[in-house]
Automatic annotation (TrEMBL):
Functional note: Cooperates with LY96 to mediate the innate immune response to bacterial lipoproteins and other microbial cell wall components. Cooperates with TLR1 or TLR6 to mediate the innate immune response to bacterial lipoproteins or lipopeptides. Acts via MYD88 and TRAF6, leading to NF-kappa-B activation, cytokine secretion and the inflammatory response.
GO cellular-component term (any): receptor complex
Entry keyword set: Disulfide bond, Glycoprotein, Immunity, Inflammatory response, Innate immunity, Leucine-rich repeat, Membrane, NAD, Receptor, Repeat, Signal, Transmembrane, Transmembrane helix
Membrane topology label: Single-pass type I membrane protein
Source species: Larimichthys crocea
Protein name (record): Toll-like receptor 2
Length: 816
């Protein structure tokens, strides 16, 4: 039993080993493929449900594998991707990476391994990535960066992001080899051990983002040590995910204050009044120029007056976005914050649910040059209060942004800003304007105006003629016909415009953006009307790919003064139907498509020429005659068969009524009447031959054709009822149309009955076979193979002629 079990497991082991060997020898045998690559060789394989790295074209430059189920990267998965510049594996279940998995990615510049299951970082992963510049390792369950230092071979690294909920320790040698960074992000909310100086060797150091929530709350010394290592006057500091409750939570910032930093941002934080006061005291006299609060919850009531004695004169910019005041009704007046509002030149309060900034508060902003109140709840009434109804407030204001509010009247807006004598930029986009008044009063200094994202259907002379930049994107405009002599940039995307604006209305225009409209086409004449146009963006329209437009876009516009800066891939055919969704740059139109009139004219000319040649050929080969006679023959024969069936039903036999049907020309009727008929039909007493044989009966058309019947039927009937057909050939016969008909039918009759002896030829005058039309091939053959009778010129031979003729008609053998 034991031996059997051992033998069984041995066989099982060998079987599994063979399977593993087969899979190793052919690693792509069971791998899925991803073909979602665009023309720029950027492959987006995200959200594909892949459990392993799929096969992708070797020429890919960007590969996005984010949000899949990939758990492992093997040695061969990326082996052929030597040209890859960006690889994104964010949001997978990646736990194992082979030490040589990235060795072939010599050109890789960006690598994202964030949000996976990597429990340790290996230096071998990055040893061949000499070109790597951006590395993201956030939110993996590693507790430390590991040894040896994982980044020491990344000599070109400029952006590094690492850390996560599991990171507990940072040692000095962890960042060995990292000498300078443009951006550093460290997530250490649970960081408990930090060796001072770990981040100090990174210089120069650009923007730094730190998430040290627990350190700020429970280990201020650690937080202070980290801040001290990364704080430089030129380095912006961003602190994320903090709860600044009391004085102690702010103390780590003293390290940054001592290093006299100039820019600090708090992102996703909650702040109490005590923390704000403590913050202002910590930065008392520090040359802080920029203070940002993004995603901040104010838990207090705005009682910050305790810090009004602090020196905050250096603050040049306040930026507040996504601000939430928990108890807004208890929040004190901003008039108590005059010590903060006197100095800044830039103030932004974005998405703060602000419905009014009282006029007294506005008057405190004596140095204000830039004011951003976008995405709030302002109306014309509250904006009038904020601007003190235009009476001498905010005299130095140059830029005003009130986009994304509840404004509805352009005339009111223009009146409110008319007294802002230094205003150059005005953004009133994403409001509810539905119409534009005929006239408006704007500051004479206004150069930039943004009214995009409204509901305007027409434009009027309300727009200031001093404008240099005008943005009317995402409205309902159908045309643009306004003279703006100073305009340099015009943005009209997302409207319903069908043609380019006239260039003479915009003599100084340099940049025109008119994407996503109903533009069908444009050409050289449209662009030539612009004197200074340099950049044009007109893609994503409903282009009619005519020959002129395709030729213009593929060749004429290249090398010209105007450049298409939105890329050829933005120009897609909408019609004709067979070219729909095709890039204009790849369309090929034939001569038939592009020169239809010329093609039709040439085709008709060629067809006419061929038709003439064909007619000449048919005439030369007598094809028309053959067709005509075939049709007549078939019709006459059908009538003949009908008569035959009638006789059979009546019990009558098909009798031959005549010995011969005589075909002759009317001009030869005298010879027929005076010689042929008397000689053959009238008995002669002195003629020995008439004694033994009865007289012959002849069928003559003038005598025996039935009146009222179709002439061709008469000819056909005469031939059917005659034993022989006699052709009296002469020059007159050849020229006679009816004789030719009779000759023609005889020709068909000979073909049909395959009989040559039933035709007798009499030549009244010398006539060669060449005088007979060549199309009568059977008669030519008969004249070549059969002796024909010639009317003798000598008197003594006439008797012999009649004797021979009678014998031929009676079917007697004789060489005549």
């Amino acid at each position: 039993m034991g031996r059997a079990t051992t033998f069984y497991f041995t066989l099982l082991y060998l079987h599994l080993l063979s399977i593993c060997w087969c899979q190793r020898s052919n690693p792509d045998s069971e791998r899925l493929s991803c073909d979602r690559c665009d023309r720029r060789l950027s492959c987006n394989c995200s959200y594909g449900g892949f459990t392993s790295v799929p096969t992708v074209t070797d020429r890919a430059l960007t590969l996005d594998l984010s949000f899949n189920e990939i758990a492992m990267v093997t040695e061969d998965d990326l082996k052929s991707h030597r040209h890859l510049k960006a690889l994104n594996l964010h949001g997978n279940k990646l736990a194992v990476i082979h030490p040589s998995a990235f060795d072939s990615l010599w050109s890789l510049e960006e690598l994202d391994l964030s949000n996976n299951q990597l429990t340790a970082l290996k230096q071998k992963w990055f040893r061949k990535l000499g070109a790597l510049q951006h590395l993201n390792l956030l939110n993996n369950p590693y507790r430390c960066l590991g040894s040896p230092a994982p980044f020491q071979t990344l000599v070109r690294l400029r952006r590094l992001r690492f850390g996560g909920p599991a990171l507990e320790e940072l040692k000095r040698e962890d960042l060995y080899g990292v000498t300078q960074l443009e951006e550093l992000t460290v997530h250490g909310n649970n960081l408990s051990r930090y060796e001072p100086g770990t981040l100090a060797d990174v210089w120069p150091l650009g923007r730094v983002t730190l998430s040290l929530r627990s350190a700020f709350l429970t280990n201020t010394a650690l937080a202070r040590a980290v801040l001290e290592d990364v704080s430089y006057p030129e380095t912006p500091i961003i602190l994320e995910d903090l709860h600044l409750i009391g004085n102690e939570s702010v103390q780590p910032l003293t390290a940054a204050a001592k290093r006299r930093i100039r820019q600090i941002s708090l992102k996703n934080v909650s702040v109490s009044d005590e923390a704000i006061v403590s913050f202002l005291m910590v930065f008392n006299g520090v040359p802080l120029t920029s203070f940002w609060l993004d995603g901040v919850t104010l838990t207090g009531e705005g009682r910050w007056a305790q810090a009004k004695w602090t020196d905050q004169k250096s603050i040049d910019e306040f930026f507040l976005r996504n601000i939430v005041v928990l108890d807004v009704w208890k929040f004190v007046s901003l008039l108590e914050l005059g010590f903060l509002l006197h100095y800044p030149r830039k103030v932004s309060v974005i998405n703060g649910r602000v419905f009014v900034m009282p006029c007294p508060t506005s008057r405190l902003l004596v140095n204000l040059q830039y004011l951003d109140l976008s995405d709030n709840l302002l109306t014309e009434m509250t904006l009038s209060e904020s601007l003190c109804d235009g009476h001498g407030t905010l005299k130095d204001l140059r830029v005003l942004n009130v986009s994304g509010n509840a404004l509805k009247s352009l005339s009111t807006i223009s009146r409110l800003v008319a007294e802002l004598s230094k205003l150059t930029h005005l953004d009133i986009s994403r409001n509810a304007y539905s119409s534009m008044p005929r006239a408006c009063s704007w500051p004479s200094t206004l150069r930039y105006l943004n009214i995009s994202g409204a509901k305007l259907e027409t434009i009027t002379p309300c727009l200031a003629t001093t404008l240099e930049v005008l943005d009317l994107s995402n409205n309902d405009l159908k045309s643009f016909s306004l003279f703006l002599p100073a305009l340099r940039e015009l943005y009209l995307s997302g409207n319903k415009i069908q043609s380019l604006p006239s260039g003479w209305l915009l003599p100084n225009l340099q940049i025109l953006t008119i994407q996503s409209n109903t533009l069908n086409m444009f050409g050289r004449s449209d662009l030539q009307s612009y004197e200074r146009l340099q950049n044009l963006q007109a893609g994503q329209n409903k282009f009619v790919c005519s020959c002129e437009f395709v030729a213009f876009l593929q060749s004429d516009i290249k090398g010209g003064d105007v450049q298409l800066t939105d890329g050829e891939e933005s120009y897609i055919c909408d019609s004709p139907l067979y070219l729909q969704e095709e890039p204009v740059g790849q369309v090929y139109l034939s001569v038939v498509d592009c020169h239809r009139v010329l093609f039709v004219s040439v085709s008709c000319g060629v067809a006419l020429f061929v038709a003439i040649l064909l007619c000449i050929l048919l005439w030369r080969l007598h094809v028309l005659w053959y067709l005509k006679m075939t049709w007549a023959w078939l019709k006459a024969k059908r009538n003949s068969r009908r008569r035959q069936r009638c006789r059979e039903r009546e019990g009558l036999e098909s009798l031959l009524s005549f010995d011969a049907f005589v075909s002759y020309s009317e001009q030869d009727a005298c010879w027929v009447d005076n010689f042929l008929v008397p000689e053959l039909e009238e008995p002669r007493d002195n003629d020995e031959e008439s004694v033994n044989h009865r007289p012959l009966t002849l069928c003559l058309h003038k005598r025996d054709f039935l009146p009222g019947h179709w002439i061709l039927d008469n000819i056909m009937s005469a031939m059917e009822r005659s034993r022989r057909t006699v052709f009296v050939l002469s020059e007159n016969f050849v020229q006679s149309d009816w004789c030719r008909y009779e000759l023609d039918f005889s020709h068909f009759w000979l073909f049909d009955r395959n009989a040559g002896g039933e035709v007798i030829l009499i030549l009244l005058e010398p006539l060669s076979k060449d005088d007979i039309p060549k199309r009568f091939c059977k008669l030519h053959k008969l004249m070549s193979s059969t002796t024909y009778l010639e009317w003798p010129q000598e008197e003594e031979k006439i008797g012999e002629f009649w004797r021979s003729l009678r014998k031929a008609l009676r079917g007697e053998e004789e060489d005549y």
